[in-house]
Write a structure and sequence with these properties.
- The chain folds into three domains: 5-108, Gyrase A, domain 2, CATH 3.30.1360; 123-273, no CATH class; 318-453, no CATH class.
- Helix content is 64%, strand content 6%.
- The chain is built from 18 helices and eight strands.
- It has helices at 5-15, 44-49, 71-86, 89-106, 110-122, 126-145, 152-164, 166-177, 182-190, 213-234, 237-300, 307-317, 322-326, 328-343, 348-362, 367-377, 379-400, 427-453; strands at residues 22-27, 31-36, 55-58, 63-66, 201-202, 205-206, 406-407, 421-422.
- The strands form three sheets. The chain has a four-stranded antiparallel beta sheet with strand order 1-2-4-3. A two-stranded antiparallel ribbon has the order 5-6. A two-stranded antiparallel ribbon has the order 7-8.
- Strand 3 and strand 4 form a beta hairpin.
């Protein structure tokens, strides 16, 4: 279904309380993220009824409207344009004061705030990671098939250029997120990938360009931001213009060269070694845990804090082995939603929600099914996790046998991840194992939800016996009248 971004933005603005109620606007891959002055002014029922809205999420910091990949970027642009045309100077001042107060309250939970801020550094990079990852997969496929030999080097260059300079983008975003000058953050982080660092010796060994990767760039830019703030607070205006940027680059740059690159390199190597060891020796167990626990992370919005780990593995190994395992959580969610659809055949409203959200779920966008179906019902959310655990165990078990599955980029999931798949045994084997994991997640999520997921929820009594013929469950040795129809 075609979505008109301008019409959607125009419909959204009054339903979230109007321009004066919107303090800030941002978006990730699937969600329009709004910081609102007063959430009581939101007409959530009307918001959910909009055709373009797949779901609504509240995480304590922002009010998130799920619009889906691709659509969200265009709607956000139109939404920001509407705000710019309707916001007065007084409203901007009030908005700034409210934002400062919210940031103070948010900083009262340091661990949660730190995870979100790290996610804010990497989320803007996801579109480039997706695009370059797909190009890398296409270049690898053409090279293996020996097709279009003249085009393959060009695709390889396009796919590799961003990853070669990703440290600069990480540094830029880090400085911006933590209150520094973005270009200074990029300048400090650029030293991590500069070829000339090979002439610098640390602990008796020459540095390697790119050593430490995104973790080193993140630490370098963060240090540079604190040095910049320290200087600006102490230097007079006449000296601040010259000395602050110089000292920020000099001090943080030297510390990066002689400490951070080496330390971050050790951490990055440990991440790669640990992931390889886990899949080789405990693949099934690791897959079970990762696939089973990922949905709660998505529910809390903390899954994006894993992006630095994915980026580090892609830098080191050319792919991340974690993403295919975590993607199994979405398969369990799809299976659970299908079971709810079959069991609650009289609930027209819920079945309509599932029909509209299921295509997005198959493509890896799980929020509509989480917040519109499984989480409100309660137990289906847990049985969806069971399905994800089963799919993860399936993929992990094959990794123990040398058929490791990896993704050359992050962002897509579900069936949308197939173009990005690779592995030690080749892309065909990787696709087969991943597809088997998805089918396992669907099947186990469906069966677990069909037999156990609706007991005690949606009007179905606890202890109800699963009827394989598809009829309504019957109470198991329980007296009393039959409960009313679901919902």
């Amino acid at each position: 279904m075609h979505t008109d971004p301008r019409a959607t933005a125009t419909a959204l603005l009054p339903l979230v309380g109007g321009p004066a109620n919107v303090l800030s606007v941002a978006h990730c891959v699937t969600r329009l993220r709004l910081v609102l002055a007063d959430r009581a002014r939101v007409d959530e029922a009307a918001l959910r009824a909009l055709p373009a809205v797949l779901g609504v999420v509240e995480d304590g910091e922002s009010y998130q409207v799920v619009l889906g990949p691709g659509v969200v970027a265009r709607v956000t642009q139109e939404f920001q344009g509407l705000l710019a045309r309707t916001t007065t100077a007084a409203e901007l001042a009030a908005r700034g004061a409210e934002l400062r107060e919210r940031r103070k309250r948010r900083n009262a939970t340091p661990a949660k705030a730190a995870l979100r801020r790290v996610a804010n550094v990497f989320v803007p990079l996801i579109p480039a990671l997706i695009g370059c990852g797909i190009l890398a997969g296409a270049a690898g496929l053409l090279a293996n098939l020996r097709w279009l030999p003249a085009l393959t080097p060009a695709l390889t260059a396009l796919a590799s250029a961003f990853m070669a300079l990703i440290a600069v983008f990480v540094g830029h975003n880090t400085a911006r997120e933590f209150g520094g000058t973005p270009v200074l953050g990029g300048a400090v982080a650029a030293v991590v990938v500069y070829p000339g660092v090979a002439k610098v010796t640390v602990f008796g060994s020459a540095l390697t360009p790119g050593q430490g990767g995104v973790l080193g760039a993140l630490a370098a830019a963060l240090l540079g931001t604190y040095v910049e703030k320290w200087c600006r607070a102490r230097l007079p205006g006449t000296l601040d213009v010259l000395l602050t940027p110089t000292l920020a680059v000099l001090v943080s740059g030297l510390v990066t060269l002689y400490v951070l690159m080496y330390a971050a390199g050790q951490v990055a190597s440990a991440i790669g070694t640990a992931s390889t060891w886990l899949l080789t020796h405990t693949g099934a167990l690791a897959g079970l845990l990762l696939g089973g626990l990922f949905l709660p992370l998505v529910m809390l919005g903390l899954h994006q804090a894993l992006i630095p780990l994915h980026a580090t593995l892609i830098e080191q190994q050319g792919h991340t082995v974690l993403l295919p395992l975590l993607a199994m959580a979405g398969a369990g969610q799809v299976g659970a939603a299908a079971a709810v659809y079959v069991r609650l055949r009289h609930d027209t409203s819920l079945r309509t929600t599932i029909r509209s959200a299921l295509p997005a779920g198959l493509l890896g966008v799980g929020e509509p099914l989480i917040y519109g179906v499984s989480l409100p019902l309660g137990r289906p959310f847990l049985t969806a996790c069971v399905g994800g655990a089963a799919g993860g165990a399936f993929v992990g078990a094959f990794a123990m046998r040398g058929a490791e599955v990896g993704a050359t980029a992050i962002g897509p999931s579900g069936w949308a991840l197939f173009p990005l798949l690779t592995g030690d045994a080749g892309p065909a084997v990787a696709a087969a194992v991943y597809g088997g994991g998805l089918l396992t997640g669907y099947a186990v999520g469906f069966l677990a939800t069909y037999c156990f997921g609706l007991s005690g929820t949606a009007g179905v009594p606890v202890g109800a016996v699963c009827d394989p013929e598809g009829h309504e469950p019957r109470p198991a040795d329980r007296p009393g009248p039959r409960p009313a129809s679901p919902r």
